[in-house]
Amino acid sequence: MITIRGKGVSSGIAEGPLYFYRRAVAKVVRTRITDVDAEWRRFKTAQAQAVDELGELAERARRYVGEEAALLFETHQIMARDLDYEDAVKSGIRERELNAEAAVSDACGRFTRMFAAMEDSYMRARAADVKDVSNRIIAILSGTVQGGIDSEVPVILAADDLAPSETVQLDKSKILGFITEGGSGTSHTAILARTMGIPSVIGVGDQLKPEYAGRETIIDGGDGVAVLDPDEDTRAGLVDKRSEQRKAKDVLAQLKGRENVTLDGQSVRIYCNIGDPDDVRAVLDNDGGGIGLFRSEMLYLGSDDYPGEEKQFEVYKKLLSDMDGREVVIRTLDIGADKKTGYFRLPEEENPAMGSRGLRVCLERPELFRTQLRALYRASAYGKLGIMLPMVTSVWEVREAKKLCEQVKRELEAEGVAYSDSVRLGIMIETPAAAIMSDRLAAEVDFFSCGTNDLTQYTLACDRGNSGLGRVYDPHHTAVLRLLKLVADNGHKRGIRVGICGDLASDLSLTETFLAIGMDELSVTPQEVLSLRRRVRETDVGKCRGDILDGLESDSEPIGG
Fold this sequence. Notes:
By secondary structure, the chain is α/β, with parallel strands linked by helices. It is 46% helix and 14% strand. It has 3 domains: 2-23 and 148-252, Glucose Oxidase, domain 1 (3-Layer(bba) Sandwich), CATH 3.50.30; 36-142, PtsI, HPr-binding domain (Enzyme I, Chain A, domain 2, Orthogonal Bundle); 263-553, TIM Barrel.
């Protein structure tokens, strides 16, 4: 028996033979060419095919995995057509007279080195994306068939790491789980694994040996353990654990249709975060009470140009209609920081997380903002709409946004276009400034929704994408929880609803805390609704409120730390 330990990033137990991923690698042969125009046409043809393939992958991911996975491939489409990248390839072909394969390989090396040298961890991670896009184009140019799984039976897939395109292209029916040498909890591989529901262990390093191929393996994606040739006791223990997990899932299904009410009668709304109208089915299937966050930037990131009013209107209309009267909160464009697309031509910034992003971009480009607001208000006639503004730090920003909202409503009235007069306007609380100023901001809006991912990184001065910070990046930190309580208190003084739409909303170890400080709403992924409902229904807030509130004021270690 051999035990391999890594990091569990997607829970569940899987058992099967270990199979090493066979990656087809196109060998780049460097040659000098004489017909540069013909070679350039070869590249452009391969580039177009790569873009088409990535589009198909995005649609497949959207259907079977979700919007976040689809966004990865749409980002790769943008990379494949990036003008700077294309110019580098063109230079190799036209100026250095290289064949297209070599020109793409050289451009890949240049951009990979550039990204790898950046201080921002998110941008460093894009080096892998450049390689993935370039390898696809080179494979098309050279006629190389993509790799995969050549097995008649389902397997535990082993690899050094898996690119997003490799993960989604794999035949899911052949994969029981996977284990990788590299990767991090925030890598594309980990995100895709969690979304696809594949038990996964990453970061095992050199513990994986080629000679292990074919050996019977059980992995525990929750504890981050893989066991090869398990003895009977070990195998029996893991099989029992898998059985218990399946039973727990069946038990959760029985909570559909039940209320989100604590033992002592406190109610909380449980809504869902989504990024695509097609995700509405998952919201309804999991009995979500509404949509607490629809990420409208996905419409922009998945497009080659600014989506027009009609396109946005149709998307929002479908979303509201499909939710059949349940509330839908749509966040206005939240572009910038780690969410960029070339046609926006955002300025290069040393610290983009604190630069031009969110509401700042919208106020700097009022016509862009007005287009989205017109689409939103027109769609409001088809359901119960809330509009939420991201990245707020000051009262004046909210007032400027409200002026634009009023202008849009006057325009629609003058045009005889229907819209609802009960649209609620709210803001995300994701900066310490907004939390501290929440008493004044509460007088301007109808609701608050706390984005705890950014609130944590800004409060603790920790890059949320930097896995090397370890315990320093602590969403349970008392400073973060105190700010959340301050926001709840200030919102309630003004009679407005306060909720959480960040990842912390699904942290069941904090559910009691959020209920104790008075959160009215918790918005999570559709798959997490029933687990959270069970936690709420098991909680007696009256018994724990005093201890929790005293703990927030004490000098003890951070709650949950």
